[in-house]
Amino acid sequence: MPDFAQPSAVSTIHDLGIVHTDEIEAKLVKASQTYGLGLVLPVTASDMRAEPFAKIVDELAGAEFLKSIVVVLNRAPEESDYREAAQLVAPLGERAEILWTDGPTVAPMVDELVAEDFNLDTPGKGRAVWLAFGYLLADKDLKAFVLHDCDIVNYDREILVRLCLPMAHPSLDFDFCKAYYARCTTKMHGRVVRLLMTPLMRALHTVIGEDEFLSFLSAFRYPLAGEFGISSGLARSNRIPCDWGLEVGTLAEVFRNTSPKRVCQVDLGRLYEHKHQPLSLNEPDKGLMKMTGDILTSIFRTLASRGSVFSPGHFISLRAAYLRCAQDAIRQYHADALMNCLDFDRHSEEQAIEGFAEQITAAGTAVHDDPSGGDALPTWTRVLAAKPDFPHRLREAATADHERLS
């Protein structure tokens, strides 16, 4: 049932189910004439060959409100990968460019920064997004960048329209817009949000007390959503994590660099479906266990940077409090699943929270040994101070690859 609830300073933009996509897209097309929007599509070689990517490209071909599209091709070492990607994105026309992070043009530029002690030597989605932001910063007409994943099974253009309009409309002044949605098929998905993030926030409030950052994180209905819009100014100032803590780390930087009242979350108005990571209970360095560890260390280090003092005893208490909150959450999800005729494997849910509890201990040890960490990428403000032409060089590199290989 639609609601109007606004429980925090983070504005919640609901889908009340009473408007057609054409109406809000018309508003966005008008707004984008004076508010340039750039889209980031991080894609691997395997993702671009999957069925969702072709559908995404087909939907984006009619997106008149986008001024620029950068397809960040990573984990794609072969020239044949680039050529295949170029063929797939050809329907997007000249506004789309491929930034090939593993290619012989861009890779040496990354090595150049690494040689000058910029922390860029960890490949992955975080670095790909960071490079895309640099590419888009070269265009001063772009006011905001929008990002979504390329494995969305049930994608249509309304997802992007709803994500862009809060950033672009002249009567609004948001610096950051985060997506939220329900994730279910015949059963509930989103285990890391349901079974880790929500009970963890409650447990942290119990153990360390009130904290503005925890309240900020708790305001988001789906804090691990990979879809967001960000103003170009904020993108220049934010540090981006290069591990599975990307989404939480991005929210931490948003909290640090802008006001919560300049932040919103928007309902994408659908049951969201994309590929699922394995739980990997017995392999803590893979799947959801690895993701959980990175998320936890990101949260703990952010709290430490804000003055929270953690001892080994704090993490023991946190683990116990988390387990109690998570067990209570499972009872709630069980009731919800029952009323909605969803399959619900309570035993596997209990196994998941036990695995997540183990990661709390491991992450606590990691943070206690190294409170600051070193995984975040540098801000573009810092790079621009040292190399003001670097974004333009990224654009030249993308153009050179296009001319050489397409």
Structure notes:
With 406 residues, this protein is an alpha/beta fold. The protein has a domain at 1-172 and 376-405: Spore Coat Polysaccharide Biosynthesis Protein SpsA, Chain A (Alpha-Beta Complex), CATH 3.90.550. Helix content is 51%, strand content 12%. The protein is built from 16 helices and eight strands. It has helices at 21-31, 45-48, 51-60, 79-89, 106-115, 125-137, 157-168, 191-208, 212-218, 232-237, 246-257, 287-305, 312-339, 346-369, 380-386, 390-405, and strands at residues 11-13, 36-44, 68-74, 96-100, 142-147, 176-182, 228-231, 263-271. It has an eight-stranded mixed sheet, sandwiched between helices. β3, α4 (79-89) and β4 form a beta-alpha-beta unit. α8 (191-208) runs antiparallel to α9. The radius of gyration is 21 Å and the shape is globular. It starts with 10 loop residues before the first strand and ends with a helix.
